[in-house]
Amino acid sequence: MFDFSSLNRPSGASRPTNPVEIFRNAPALAESPNDLWQGQSKALEQWNLARDKKDVLISLHTGAGKSLVGLLIAQSLVNEGTARVLYLCGTNDLVTQTSREVTNKLGFPHSTRMGGSFSNELYITGQGFCLTNYQALFNSRSVFKRDNRPEAIIFDDAHVAEKIIRDCYTLKISSDDHAQLFARLVELIRPHFVAIGRADYYHNVISGGSVHRVVLVPPPAMLALSKEQNLLGILREHGLYEGETAYALQHLADHLHVCPMFISRSSIEIAPAFLPSKRIDYLTDPAVRRVYLSATLTSEVDFCRAFGKRPSLKIEPESDAGMGERMIILTESSRLTEAGVGNVKPARVAAYLAGSNKLLITTSSYAAAEKYREIASPPPQRQFTEALDAFRKSTSPGAFVLVGRVDGIDLPHATCRVMLADGLPTGFSLYESYLFDFLEMRNSFAAKLANRITQMFGRTNRGRNDYSAIFAVDPQLVSWLMTPRNLAHLPDLLRRQLLLGKSMVQQFTIQDITTFPALVNQMVSRDPNWLAYYTDSVRGLDVTEEQRLQAADNDQLLTEAALAEADFGAFIWDGNSQAARMALGEIVDRVVVADRRLAGWYNIQIGMTYELEGDTEAAAKQYSEAKSRTNHTLALPIPQSTQSAAQEQKPRNLLHSRLLEIFINDVRIQNDHFAKYERRISPLFDQSRSASEHEEALRTLGELVGFQATRPEQESDTNSTLDVLWLSPSASKCILVELKSKKRQDSVVNAADVGQAYNHLQWVSQSHGESQILGLIIVAALPKKSPEAAPSEIMWASDTSRFKALFEDTMQMLRSLQRMAPLDRYAEMTAVCARAEWQPDAIFERLRGIRLRDT
């Protein structure tokens, strides 16, 4: 055998640094790609021109080969002479998979770091880049320090980095692994819930007897537990500085008092409210070049939450790579039948699909995976890679269950063409469950879920010439995917494919699961009629421009909020509670337009900063604001000022409750309430403000005048597109409002608008059947129906001037009450709430305008 390694090389030879040239010079191996795709070439060329920039984001479609781009950049940096280049993958499985691709496709010398050791010396000596996982870099005992410190980092799958980095900063205490510690902490916390009158609520959550799975420990309780009862000492005493828990604990040890604690029936988690990304050295060091590889991002919110900044440069080349064909069938399980018989279980759906196909089943938890046990079970973690490889290579029908993974698993072409998606990809931590399930932060999670669903649907569809069928029957997932405001966050083609699938389900009435295999077979066998229907129809479907623009407006505001969160996380990590409070204080009242539940979460954190300074009354007022914005069952302290004559008053209705809430405080706080409502409602009368600001202002006006006011399109899990609903539980009456105030002044209410209005009326009748619908008001500058429109008699046309008059009268009433002596004021408040002009019927009469059919 000839030893080529012993031969001399030309002394003047230099290694190329242009990544495209590096690809062309790579050795020809059995699996080497013939050429770069157009999107890959464009991305590499643009990066090479800006290679000295510190934070570059490269975004390509799922399946468009972003990992190859990242590997060529890594080798380019090595060739340039960058001392240590690190390439991060999401898991060890992906490290192994990526290393195999480097070896078999590119032939680059490289190192891996897994299981606590390097595979060779190439990274340490600067002769090759190192593949490792995110945890290896972000754990508190990282080996990548001092002499091993990287000078460049490639973040593969940067779109999921926030979850992975957050995991590194989350201390998890399981009742199985740490039974004594779990029980001890549960009992130490109990008195704090007793003190605020919520002992039963706490007991029910931790015993599993509540509809709520997770409870937040009140910030003053966390402060007392940390400072007075030596939480860190307790954790040390129970051995949490040993084993896996030590990695997160060392991050949190000096900051436990400012971290929220979440408790469920079987576990406890402690984690920062917002990642201290600006205090993570690898993310801020100006000497480190960072390249982020991501699937196509429709939003920068999660990127900013993970890395604490926007990228200095975004590279998003146009490319059709990764834009494969999908048949997506969404039918809620309650509507399914099996040969005409209802009550179909998801396992039966899986059985039919796996009977003649290779089927990937995705679930968000192992508990959810249990329902498929008769079909397939998720492999043990230590056998995951082997089991997945066996499924890839198999040519026989069968199923593979993937739990809690939405990225990094590639099953292209014939390796798997059918997926059953079960449940929304959320709730991966107690933190996430609390924010999404309890606080119901639907809008702030929309971009995150859209990103995860895009990745999830990309597991079985990896390129332009790939095709697959995706089924979803879980009610929560189907509802999310049918909601236009959510669709607006998805990539263009996927959004259209979902709407195409919705049209198919409606036209074919697809609900009998015995027909599913034949449907899949037609798609897989490339039925000409299916191909013609897909080609002719997919480009003609989309959500409205208004919905896309509103999603973009909300996303811009949420991105700004994410940067404020990063500032808060940094300042609170420094111990600077005042600066942290200012960071969120500047955005909290503005972000309510995009997601008022998120604003409520901010109020809780602002309250915590007051607790740190000993101002418990100011903290409690923030908690009160949080309750009004999120969920009134929040277990948090209440302001002491409520212990007044006003508290003895029993609210007669929501208007009375609102007045009591305002006037239980002194004059200064009363004026703050007045200013708050003026600030939040005035955008309704300003045409320069966004549609989202108009909707939130209108919702707030309804809240002020005594309605239970919501924005169904923005806040509910239904597929309703209604802008604002004013509901009076005491009177069992409601008013629907649809805002068209952003339309041109000469625009008309057309047949589509009226059809949408009928849908709104039907939705409210089904969702709030106990309430009488007073009417639906369409608010526009000059409302006028088009000739073909056929509105009902309870559809009305109005303009904002009527709402402005109501607002001005309400503020005048509040100031009149303020001028009264307290005891007189309480009697007058009771009288006001009983007067005819403040009842739902009278309010509707003054707002409704004229019947739409008469315009």
Computed Rg: 29 Å
> Which stretches are poorly predicted, pLDDT < 50 over at least 5 residues?
642-646
Kindly estimate the percentage of residues that lie in beta strands according to DSSP.
Answer: 5-15%
State the helix count: 36
Shape: globular
Cross-sheet strand order for the largest sheet: 4-3-5-2-6-11-1-12
Structure classification: alpha/beta
Distance between the termini: 93 Å
Mean pLDDT across all amino acids:
91
Number of strands: 23
Helicity range: 40-55%
Largest beta-sheet characterization = 8 strands, mixed
Please specify the SSE layout and strand pairing:
Layout: H1 19-25, H2 38-49, E1 55-60, H3 66-80, E2 85-89, H4 92-106, E3 110-114, E4 117-118, E5 129-133, H5 134-138, E6 152-155, H6 161-168, E7 171-174, H7 179-195, H8 199-207, E8 215-216, H9 219-227, H10 231-237, H11 245-252, E9 261-263, E10 267-270, H12 281-284, E11 289-295, H13 301-307, E12 313-315, E13 325-330, H14 346-355, E14 358-363, H15 366-369, H16 384-393, E15 398-403, E16 418-422, H17 430-438, H18 442-457, E17 467-472, H19 475-482, H20 484-487, H21 492-508, H22 516-524, H23 528-537, H24 545-574, H25 577-585, H26 588-591, H27 596-612, H28 616-629, H29 654-663, H30 667-681, H31 691-704, E18 708-710, H32 712-715, E19 724-728, E20 733-739, H33 751-767, E21 772-779, E22 795-798, H34 800-818, H35 822-834, H36 840-847, E23 850-851
Parallel strand pairs: 1-11, 1-12, 2-5, 2-6, 3-5, 6-11, 13-17, 14-15, 14-16, 16-17, 20-21, 21-22
Antiparallel strand pairs: 3-4, 7-10, 8-9, 9-10, 18-19, 19-20, 22-23
